[in-house]
């Protein structure tokens, strides 16, 4: 299991009910992690509508998770 | 008959009164406005009224007509003097006769209040000391706005009762003489496209208000900054900036850029002001509801800084012509609440090499990205290559937003714009900035251009392809007065709204409900024949129609959505 810190923006924050959380996950990469979170929080956004960043750098979805990573999920928002 | 007179001649009171006599009238009420010998502590020797006569005649006639219908008076007339008046002269005469006194009193009051609000008339006071000053004939309270609707004996429903708030407030702002009397309300937004800007004539000399004639902007507080100075001010004066969207983000952008002395501002907005905009769109007030935002914004800029030239575009920019518009500006600031507009602006910026400042908000947070449009530096599509389906990225309508959120993000856009125009130091990296106004956090995430469009031929190639495919869109939009007309024309109606929206506002015609997410997911089967997709605003239906087209369905989208149906939904 890997300990990670998660940050959510926009609809993800709303659906998760928090802007951040700590998680112990068995996911090996970011794609699996998001799939796990979709089930857990009922996220409506598909993965291709999102950007993901790890430790303040945008990342590929296939990136492996490392202990202590801070993972940020960012959907585009439209309001103005 | 003529119920409104504007004249430089003396008034024959007896004749005016006699003309209003009516056998059914049991009450007559007259109001006279006189020239008094003082105003705000100064002794006045006389007055000079100046009017924009053509507008006054049309608007004055309308006001008296409104009062007659609203209160059911049998006859009414209003006369306004212009030219030189001395102390004691009658400046305004209003008379109304009705079956009962109450209607006559109320009609008089209504007419004088509306006259003061709506007529383009200016008053020059001559003081005993020999000097003069122009005084705005406005800012009066409207007594009838305090009345509950049911007190009007002949009230003809809300649409009529509130019609005055849909009129431009001609007498309140100095630049109003150049604002059209009855701005088109943009009912055909989405179909008739206009490339050319309407240029507001903002030459200070044309203004009749007087007080702004000799106004000289004072930029001393910003030119004092060493990095700005007179040279920086000259750069701003020469700059041309296009602001797309005059809403929550656009208000601070337009205000700060106008205040800073940006020489030319282009303003794009296809909407009219709605009451639900006021909590975040701080350039406007309640009297502006129903008016085109481009006109209101142009008027606001003229009042704030008459040195700024404003070009207005009252229709959204479209793929066919957007690049030509961008080419006329040094910098574009995207302030809409529309993802499609943001992507289109990105593509046009890349293709024309115009820097673009993007921002968007969601509830309590926002995103900011500066697209330099320099080859090798990242764009919006480097982050999110294709536009997500509408509905996936929440809007202010659907998700809610607290007013200061676009205020903060729009202010940040204005700051970025000034930094670019002035050549001030900026962050070295190209980043997406995320601002969370609940916990006060902000983070910059650097964008790696090599991992974005570069993988798909580069930003320019990606933008070129996107704008070409967007050019097919106008054929998707269809305009109807009523949904019944669409059915009569052979369209089957597909409602792509969410079930709860449909439950709140069901359609009055046979339709099939297919939420947009199902269309996007491709799980819908058996859509055949010619279909018209509908949603609240036309955004989701347009997106879904394009997807269905790709699957061979003859799909169209109701332009502007259900809210834009000219006769309302239930006709």
Outline:
The complex is a heterodimer of chains A (80) and B (571). Chain A is of the alpha+beta class and 80 residues long.
What does this structure look like?
The complex is a heterodimer of chains A (80) and B (571). Chain A has 2 helices and 5 strands; from the N terminus they run βαβαβββ. With 80 residues, chain A is an alpha+beta fold. Chain A has one domain (2-74): Ubiquitin-like (UB roll) (Roll). Chain B folds into 3 domains: 4-172, Alpha-Beta Complex (Aldehyde Oxidoreductase, domain 3); 183-470, NAD(P)-binding Rossmann-like Domain (Rossmann fold, 3-Layer(aba) Sandwich), CATH 3.40.50.720; 476-564, 3-Layer(aba) Sandwich (Oxidized Rhodanese, domain 1). Chain B is an alpha/beta fold. In chain B, helix 2 (53-71) packs antiparallel against helix 3, helix 7 runs parallel beside helix 8 and helix 7 packs parallel to helix 13. Chain B contains 18 helices and 23 strands. The chains are: A alpha+beta (80), B alpha/beta (571). The A-B interface holds A 9-11, 13-14, 19, 44-46, 49, 51, 53, 56-58, 60, 72, 74-80 and B 245, 247-250, 335-339, 342, 359-363, 365-367, 383-384, 388-390, 392-396, 399, 401, 406, 432, 434, 436, 438-439, 443-448, 451, 517.
């Amino acid at each position: 299991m890997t300990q990670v810190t998660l940050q959510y923006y926009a609809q993800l924050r709303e659906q998760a009910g928090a802007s951040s959380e700590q998680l112990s996950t068995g996911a090996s990469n970011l794609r699996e992690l998001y799939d796990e979170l979709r089930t857990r929080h009922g996220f409506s956004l598909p993965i291709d509508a999102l950007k993901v960043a790890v430790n303040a750098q945008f990342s590929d979805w296939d990136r492996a998770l490392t202990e202590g990573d801070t993972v940020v999920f960012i959907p585009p928002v439209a309001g103005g | 008959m003529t119920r409104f007179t504007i004249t430089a001649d003396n008034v024959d009171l007896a004749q005016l009164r006699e003309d209003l006599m009516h056998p059914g009238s049991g009450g007559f009420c007259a109001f006279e406005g006189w020239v008094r010998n003082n105003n705000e502590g100064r002794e006045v020797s006389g007055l000079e009224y100046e009017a924009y006569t053509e507008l006054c005649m049309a608007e004055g006639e309308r006001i008296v007509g409104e009062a007659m219908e609203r209160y059911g008076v049998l006859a009414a007339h209003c006369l306004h003097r212009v030219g030189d008046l001395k102390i004691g002269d009658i400046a305004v005469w209003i008379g109304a006769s009705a079956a009962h006194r109450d209607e006559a009193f109320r009609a008089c009051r209504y007419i004088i209040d509306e006259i003061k609000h709506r007529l383009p008339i200016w008053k020059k006071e001559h003081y005993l000391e020999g000097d003069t000053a122009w005084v705005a004939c406005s800012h009066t309270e409207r007594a009838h706005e305090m009345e509950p609707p049911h007190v009007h004996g002949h009230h003809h429903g809300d649409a009529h009762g509130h019609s005055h708030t849909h009129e431009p407030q001609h007498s309140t702002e100095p630049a109003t003489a150049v604002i059209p009397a009855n701005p088109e309300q943009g009912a055909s937004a989405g179909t008739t496209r206009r490339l050319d800007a309407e240029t507001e004539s903002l030459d200070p000399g044309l203004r009749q208000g007087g007080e702004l004639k000799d106004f000289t902007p004072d930029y001393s507080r910003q030119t004092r900054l060493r990095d700005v100075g007179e040279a920086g001010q000259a750069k701003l004066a020469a700059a041309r900036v296009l602001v797309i969207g005059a809403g929550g983000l656009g208000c601070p952008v337009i205000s700060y850029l106008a205040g800073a002395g940006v020489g030319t501002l282009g303003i794009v907005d296809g909407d009219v002001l709605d009451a639900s905009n006021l909590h975040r769109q701080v350039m406007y007030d309640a009297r502006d509801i129903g008016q085109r935002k481009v006109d209101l914004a142009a008027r606001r800029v003229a009042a704030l800084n008459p040195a700024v030239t404003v070009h207005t575009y009252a229709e959204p920019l479209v793929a066919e012509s957007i690049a030509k518009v961008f080419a006329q500006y040094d910098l574009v600031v995207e302030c809409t609440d529309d993802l499609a507009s943001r992507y289109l602006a990105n593509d046009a910026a890349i293709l024309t090499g115009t820097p673009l400042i993007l921002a968007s908000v969601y509830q309590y947070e926002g995103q900011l990205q500066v697209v330099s449009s320099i080859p090798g530096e990242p764009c919006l599509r480097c982050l999110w290559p294709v536009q997500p389906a509408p509905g996936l990225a929440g809007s202010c309508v659907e998700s809610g937003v607290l007013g200061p959120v676009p205020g903060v993000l729009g202010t940040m856009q204005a700051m970025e714009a000034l930094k670019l125009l002035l050549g001030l130091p900026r962050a070295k990296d190209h980043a997406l900035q995320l601002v969370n106004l609940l916990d006060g956090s902000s983070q910059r995430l650097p964008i790696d251009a090599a991992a974005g469009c570069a993988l798909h031929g580069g930003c320019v190639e990606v933008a070129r392809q996107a704008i070409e495919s967007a050019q097919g869109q106008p054929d998707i939009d269809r305009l109807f007065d009523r949904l019944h007309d669409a059915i009569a024309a052979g369209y089957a109606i597909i409602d792509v709204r969410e079930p709860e929206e449909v439950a709140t506002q069901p359609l009055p015609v046979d339709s099939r409900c297919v939420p947009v997410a199902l269309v996007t997911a491709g799980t819908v089967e058996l859509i055949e024949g010619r279909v018209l997709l509908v949603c609240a605003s036309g955004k989701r239906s347009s997106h879904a129609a394009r997807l269905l087209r790709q699957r061979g369905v003859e799909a169209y989208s109701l332009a502007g959505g259900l809210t834009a149906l000219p006769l309302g939904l239930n006709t």
